[in-house]
């Protein structure tokens, strides 16, 4: 267990619980996991429609679960792959540290600074009320922005480092939005894994 750090930083926020573990995975382990996921995943390029026009989503995605069920949001359907032994073990460790159960992992591959994830909340009804979502970051640093839906002064950002774990819980998905904006900086790729319980 000492391969995983559990030093938690709790961020004090209204209507949300947010916990950050900066060095959850040792850097080398994070790099190896990045390489194996990059290579062994069936990355999906989805399209999004905006005012009737179709665009490529600015990142690649993948879904792992043990239910075999597809997952749909914003007109996108994700087709699952089965957990590898590596992902299953990681899921079990993250379940312990976040005191939650997860049956699905959603992956995002941000190929460069032009890939992004726009303002949204993970509030699909399949996630239930006040879902706990644990988010593991591998590869390049990216900035995570989050803002309260009503309290305009509550707008923050935090850099998600290689090997870090961010745990979103409480009423965060109902009261806050989050995004990974584009950046003009020349940066390497990043893989993000969000652990979710999908009902
Ligand atoms: O890449 C990230 O850190 C955020 C991913 C995210 O918000 C999502 O997949 O819903
Ligand atoms: Fe999200």
TrEMBL record:
Coiled-coil spans in chain: none
Signal peptide start-end: none
InterPro entries: AlkB-like, AlkB-like_sf, ALKBH3, Oxoglu/Fe-dep_dioxygenase_dom
Domain of life per record: Bacteria
Annotated Pfam families: 2OG-FeII_Oxy_2 (PF13532)
Domain Fe2OG dioxygenase: 101-199
Keyword Oxidoreductase: yes
Required cofactor names: Fe(2+)
GO molecular function: catalytic activity, acting on DNA; demethylase activity; dioxygenase activity; hydrolase activity; metal ion binding; oxidoreductase activity, acting on paired donors, with incorporation or reduction of molecular oxygen
GO BP terms: DNA alkylation repair
Keywords linked to the UniProt accession: Dioxygenase, DNA damage, DNA repair, Iron, Magnesium, Metal-binding, Oxidoreductase
Full protein name: Alpha-ketoglutarate-dependent dioxygenase AlkB
The species this protein was found in: Hanstruepera neustonica
């Amino acid at each position: 267990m000492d391969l995983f750090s559990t030093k938690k930083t709790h961020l004090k926020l209204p209507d949300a619980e947010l916990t950050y573990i900066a060095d959850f995975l040792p850097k080398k382990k994070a790099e190896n996991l990045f390489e194996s996921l990059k290579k062994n995943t069936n990355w999906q390029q989805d399209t999004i429609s905006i005012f009737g026009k179709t665009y490529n989503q600015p990142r690649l995605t993948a879904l792992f679960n043990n239910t075999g069920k597809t997952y749909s949001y914003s007109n996108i359907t994700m087709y699952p792959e089965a957990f590898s032994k590596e992902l299953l073990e990681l899921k079990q460790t993250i379940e312990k540290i976040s005191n939650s159960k997860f049956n699905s992992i959603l992956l995002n591959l941000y190929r460069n600074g032009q890939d992004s994830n726009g303002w949204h909340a993970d509030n699909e009804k399949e996630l239930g009320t006040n879902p706990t979502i644990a988010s593991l970051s591998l590869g390049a640093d990216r900035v995570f922005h989050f803002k309260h839906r009503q309290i305009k002064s509550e707008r923050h950002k935090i850099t998600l480092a290689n090997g870090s774990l961010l745990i979103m819980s409480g009423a965060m998905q109902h009261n806050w939005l989050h995004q990974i904006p584009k950046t003009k900086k020349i940066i390497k790729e990043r893989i993000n894994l969000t652990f979710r319980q999908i009902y």
